[in-house]
Specification:
The chain has 231 residues and is mostly helical. It is built from 14 helices and no strands. InterPro entries: ARM-type_fold, DNA_alkylation.
């Protein structure tokens, strides 16, 4: 099974796409160049078969095989306990933003048992590993920007104790998603938040980049930016 998957990856490799992706993901040296639609197609096929064998035998050092692990967990029909174990095994392996973000979006099962999965994600917020914290934040912005969780999310953003770049960018992205869905609450938050200056300003930048935000709102938000020397 694993050899057939590797052969399909080799056959699907695109050198130009490989060069493009490597320019976007710092330090990436193990990519073959398989595009995401093909990886998702393969992941769905794996998820419908002996996915456990694949997760056990996949090569963690290969970008595509690691990506497949992440999205197979999202597609496979597992019980909650099996999903938890699979994520606990996978999350520490995440080593770039693309693996993180493309995997997180597939975890729609988190929306079915929100109390359990929100608590599961919260554990990673105190991690010392950059991509473990990002995993929690991106999963939250993908699946928990709801009336039930908005207040808790905004409070979490105020208490992130990490200046790692990909954590800060995930937090800013999450704030922007919150603003689009809950503009009044998020606007009030931005006027008094305790996020570091970089994350605060990036949050405003990302909100202002959204086509869902009016010009009047964008002008108002610009006034809330902080001087970078205030970091």
């Amino acid at each position: 099974m694993i050899e057939a998957i590797r052969e399909e990856l080799r056959q699907s490799a695109d050198k130009e796409y490989k060069r493009f992706q490597e320019s976007l993901i710092p330090g990436l040296t193990t990519m073959m160049g398989v595009r995401m639609p093909q990886l998702r197609k393969m992941a769905k096929k794996i998820a419908g078969g002996d996915y456990a064998a694949f997760l056990k035998k996949a090569d963690d050092t290969c970008y595509e095989e690691l990506m497949l692990q992440g999205i197979v967990i999202g597609y496979a029909k597992m019980e909650r306990e099996e999903q938890s174990r699979a994520l606990e095994h996978f999350v520490p392996k995440i080593n770039n933003w693309a693996i993180c973000d493309c995997s997180c979006i597939t975890y729609k099962f988190m929306r079915k048992d929100t109390s359990y999965w929100f608590a599961f994600l919260e554990r990673y917020l105190s991690s010392e590993r950059e991509y473990e914290i990002r995993f929690a934040l991106v999963s939250m912005l993908d699946h928990f920007v709801t009336e039930e969780y908005i207040d808790r999310l905004l409070n979490i953003f105020n208490h992130i104790d990490s200046h790692a770049y990909y954590v800060q960018m995930a937090a800013a992205w999450a704030v922007s998603v919150c603003y689009v869905k809950f503009p009044e609450k998020t606007a009030a938050f931005l006027q008094k938040d305790t996020m570091d200056t970089f994350t605060h300003n990036k949050s405003i930048q990302k909100i202002r980049e959204s086509y869902k935000v009016s010009k009047e709102e964008k002008d108002r938000l610009l006034k809330w930016k902080r001087e970078e020397t205030g970091k």
